[in-house]
Design a protein that fits this description.
six-stranded mixed β-sheet; 10 helices; 10 strands; binds pyridoxal-5'-phosphate
Length: about 325
């Protein structure tokens, strides 16, 4: 099955979307279940956030909020920053990205290559210990300091729903020829799951859209705790959450996400990022309960190439998550 890729496009922005949907036949022992992965790493910025960036820019251009603005300031765990850095370069806008120490080194290097100015918060919010709250506070400060600046604010910007309804989910349904029974999507701003759920509702699909969160994240009533992995989960509930409406929420421990990512690459040759590992772990925890013939789609937000020094590095995992390579391997073998 093809995803419609390979058509000539005008400029790199035209290559956003139409990512491949790939059958994963080796991930589970359950050969009576159909598992598909939507590989968002095939977007030119390497993640699903290319779609969000384009939708937010389109909305700002059409509602006039970019008139006379020359600088964009945004907080990002990395992927949106890469997408916006490239698009700001093409539009001739200066881009300031606020990151925290959990950001992948390669992601920052990518943003810099596209000409972004990086601002690093060095301490979490003193009241809550949360990094996202600290990043958003720095965005507010920068907006006051930088003339003619604006933030798209990915945490409250409904354009993300449009991007993933008209893009991600609609492509999945079109590639399959129908809606799947189950959809697993990692969450942070909740833009991806919210947009996917919106499209499913609009076509009357009976798909169960499962939002995958990190243990220690506060999304949908979760309790705040320590989380180490970047990209998914949130330390403060984003405004979008109120309109996101996943049918279920599953929380995954950091160690289980690493095990999921390792199982995926070892069995399927798909090198996913940390949130992709969480999505695999969430699926594998429940797969024993699925009826024969169940069709599942996993949205994998980004590639593991940016995580080679973290979740794919045994020494890093032992130091940061307290799990040795032998235990990781044992748990991976149990994940069937
Ligand atoms: C790697 C990764 N996974 C999952 C997500 C969650 O997507 P959303 O913010 O649309 O909920 C993000 C968002 O930044 C991400 O970068």
């Amino acid at each position: 099955m093809t995803s419609g890729r390979g058509k000539p496009v005008a400029g790199i922005t035209g290559a956003v979307g139409n990512t491949p949907l790939v059958r994963l036949a080796r991930l589970s022992d359950r050969d009576d279940i159909l598992i598909w992965a939507k590989l968002e790493e095939f977007n030119p910025g390497g993640s699903a956030k290319d779609r969000t960036a384009l939708a937010m820019i389109d909305a700002a251009l059409s509602d006039g909020s970019m008139t006379a603005k020359t600088s964009i300031v945004e907080s990002s765990s990395g992927n949106l920053g890469v997408a916006l850095a490239r698009e700001c370069l093409l539009h001739g806008w200066a881009f300031h990205c606020v990151v925290d120490p959990r950001v992948n080194r390669r992601t920052v290097a990518l943003m810099s290559a596209f000409g972004a100015t990086i601002h690093r918060v060095t301490a979490p919010d003193p009241k809550t210990g949360d990094w996202l709250i600290a990043r958003r506070a720095m965005v507010r400060e920068l907006l006051m300091e930088i003339p003619d600046s604006v933030s798209f604010d990915q945490y409250s910007n409904p354009a993300a729903f449009t991007a993933h309804a008209a893009g991600t989910m609609s492509e999945i349904v079109s590639d399959l020829g129908h809606a799947p029974d189950l959809l697993f999507v990692a969450m942070s701003t909740t833009g991806t799951i919210g947009g996917c759920a919106r499209h499913l509702a609009s076509i009357g699909a009976r798909t169960l859209a499962i939002g995958v969160d990190a243990e220690g994240s506060v999304l949908f009533g979760g309790s705040r705790g320590t989380r180490v992995l970047p990209g998914f989960g949130a330390g403060v509930a984003p405004e979008l959450e109120k309109n996101a409406h996943p049918h279920e929420v599953v929380r995954v421990a950091d160690t289980a996400s690493v095990v999921g990512a390792r199982a995926l690459v070892h069995r399927e040759g798909v090198l996913a990022g940390a949130s992709g590992g969480a999505v695999v772990a969430a699926l594998m925890e429940r797969i024993g309960d699925f009826a024969p013939g169940t069709e599942v789609v996993l949205v994998l937000h980004d590639s593991g190439a940016s995580y080679l020094e973290t979740i794919y590095d045994d020494a890093w995992v032992e130091e940061n998550l307290g799990m040795c390579a032998g235990e990781l391997r044992r748990r991976e073998e149990l994940m069937t």
